[in-house]
Specification:
Cobalt-precorrin-4 Transmethylase, domain 1; 5-stranded mixed β-sheet; 5-stranded parallel β-sheet; Methyltransferase, Cobalt-precorrin-4 Transmethylase, Domain 2; single chain
Length: 245
Amino acid sequence: MSGTGFVSFVGSGPGDPELLTLKAADRLKRADAVLYDDLSSGPILSYARTGADLVGVGKRAGRPSPRQHHVSRLLVDYARGGQRIVRLKSGDGGLFGRLEEELIALREAGIGFEIIPGIASPFAAAADLGIPLTRRLTARRVQFVTGHDAGGQLPDDLNLDALADPRACTVVFMGKRTFPALAAALIARGLSPDTPTILAESVGTPEAASRRSTVAALAADLSTGIGTKPALILYGSLAGQDGDD
């Protein structure tokens, strides 16, 4: 479509600007406008060229956030102005990043796009902890799951039998608020309350911190307060391994 802009969906990684890919940095430097997630702000935006429009469109649980249809509409409007747009998403946009809704909006508007993957936060967290996400013979499967549905509740269609498998390495995104309920459901399905667990907060930022626990103990702790830091929860046998094991 003549005169129509182009959108680059860029995965920014977990927050450390040194973990940006070369392609991601290039698109930021050439963009006329950057629509960025809350977790993609900060030093990563320094890669944007001087004069580019920087528009925060991030959504955080429990905080006032723009509705998804507004974000999609804004993306289309910018592109129809003939500009080069970066839609900057935290981690990898294809993992719980509402990427599909925005792709649908662009396709319906006839706007071209590309998807540039980023380093997903579980990989960065595992690297910081000095552990793998898989191990031959004992942890052959990794599973990622969201901790809440569109209404902020624990999804009611989770495969609890799979999530209660102690031989898998399970990573829960956005799950601090609902983990007590998830833990109760998993224990009822046979997962040991003593299954090793790691809470990894603010992955890829200077505020990054992790805490080792068990499924039952972490659930009890989070039931009294969750704080404001974004976090991942990892559980399974690998969560009990130290980096030098």
